[in-house]
Design brief:
Helix content: 25-40%
Strand order of the largest sheet: 1-2-3-4-5-6-7-9-11-12-13-14-15
Number of helices: 13
Structural class: alpha/beta
Shape: globular
Distance between the termini: 70 Å
Strand content: 15-25%
Order of helices and strands: HHHEHEHEHEEEHEEEHEEHEHEHEHEH
Protein name: F-box domain-containing protein
Organism: Macrolepiota fuliginosa MF-IS2
Radius of gyration: 25 Å
Number of strands: 15
Largest sheet: 13 strands, mixed
Length: 404
């Protein structure tokens, strides 16, 4: 006869097995933010799960989330660091009656109060909010104590950046700062020494002096993404002392309203390995002496990513890029059209173009219809800051597949 332990082994399994199962379940769930379905497991693991703070410290909040649910997660997570994805944007109203507006404002206030009440436990905070609430939210963020905060993502569409509170030295241990539509200037006087990843997609430019000062206080910065008018007065004339970034390994540039060479020659990064250009066109590339300077300054580049549906690249463009970045090992094409694939293939027919090239990788948006998606990659969500790539192809494999 089998013992009870043999027929009911689950109580004897370590709780780490429960963590592993739920981690795997969440990673394969179709929803980007799956909920924990503890009722789908046995009673032993259900009770263990309810008692495990680790299963309750990572959750999503929106204006539709019931207040008791938020309170429950905060209670059951106890004193563990929190990972919160908070979306405080108002949906399009069916009615603009005073009652509806007042109810939404009250709900917003209650939820934000609960979230900020746990600020001392924030580890990762992703926050999306309407521009009308931006001044109040940034003011609150500048005043709460966040000793464990490592990652902060703020997304809005702020039209005016006056009278915003500065953060000073409130965020001491921040490693990742991502701002989309949120001005950078409230942060530039803060404690940025721990920041390793900085993503700026903003429409409120700061001066080169302020940008330089902020960069110099980030000696450990490894990733920098600049999208939009980040700096208002890039030096057009050569001769300015470049901004020294001793630890930078990856740089992404997009939608700059100055020639591409200007920000590139304004930065000195001896360890830079990977560079990304979004919506690059042939007109963006420098020529003559400037092109030679770029080649001299960026001999360390081994990986180049070209992305964006507005990219305009032809055979000669790739040869020009080769003249600037001659030692590439890896080349990526992200969300580009079929014509660009053909032009790259044409350029690679010449053995002297990127002779060291080892792999070419691709990525597409869901439902993308370009030739790369149809032949080599599974549909995936495209995010220039978190590339999800297909299996890389060697140079010979690429030419075999895409030579028409």
């Amino acid at each position: 006869m089998l013992s009870k332990t043999s027929t009911h082994p689950l109580p004897n399994l370590p709780i780490d097995i429960l963590y592993l199962i739920f981690d795997i379940y969440q990673s394969i769930e179709q929803s980007p933010h799956p909920g924990l379905r503890l009722t789908q497991v046995c009673s032993h693991w259900r009770y263990a799960g309810l008692d495990s703070s680790r299963l309750w410290n990572n959750f999503c909040v929106s204006l539709k989330t019931p207040i008791p649910i938020i309170s429950l997660y905060l209670q059951r997570s106890r004193n563990t660091p929190l990972i919160i994805d908070c979306d405080l944007r108002h949906a399009k109203r069916l009615s603009n009656s005073p009652e509806v507006v007042l109810r939404e404002a009250h709900c917003h206030s209650l939820i934000w109060s609960l979230v900020t009440g746990a600020a001392s436990r924030w580890q990762h905070l992703s926050l999306r909010f309407d521009s009308i609430n931006a001044p109040a939210i940034i003011r609150d963020l500048a005043h709460v104590s966040t000793p464990t905060l490592r990652r902060l993502l703020l997304w809005t569409n702020l039209q005016s950046c006056s009278d915003l509170h500065t953060f000073g030295n409130k965020i001491l241990n921040l490693e990742v700062l991502s701002l989309r539509g949120v001005p950078f200037h409230p942060f530039i006087s803060g404690a940025l020494g721990s920041v390793k990843r900085l993503e700026l997609s903003i429409n409120h430019a700061i001066s080169l002096k302020d940008f330089r000062g902020a960069m110099e206080r980030m000696p450990g910065l490894e990733y920098l993404s600049l999208r939009g008018d980040v700096v208002v007065d890039w030096p057009i004339q050569l001769g300015e002392e470049p901004i020294y970034l001793p630890s930078l390994r990856s740089l992404s540039l997009a939608e700059q309203r100055v020639p591409l060479a200007v920000p590139l020659l304004s930065i000195s990064a001896p360890l830079l390995y990977d560079i990304t250009f979004v919506d690059l066109t042939t007109r963006d590339l420098p020529s003559g002496f400037t092109s030679t300077l770029l080649r001299q300054n960026y001999m360390s580049i081994r990986s180049l990513v070209l992305s964006g549906g507005a990219s305009e690249l032809i055979d000669d463009t790739f040869r020009h890029l080769f003249s600037i970045f001659p030692k590439l090992d890896h080349l990526g094409l992200i969300q580009v059209n079929e014509f660009i694939v053909q032009e790259l293939t044409s350029a690679l027919q010449h053995p002297g173009v990127w002779p060291q090239l080892q792999t070419i990788f691709t990525s597409t948006t869901p439902g993308g219809d370009n030739v790369i998606a149809s032949q080599h990659s599974s549909p995936c969500e495209w995010d220039i800051t978190h590339l999800s790539v297909s299996t890389p192809l060697t140079r010979s494999e690429w030419l075999k597949e895409f030579s028409w």
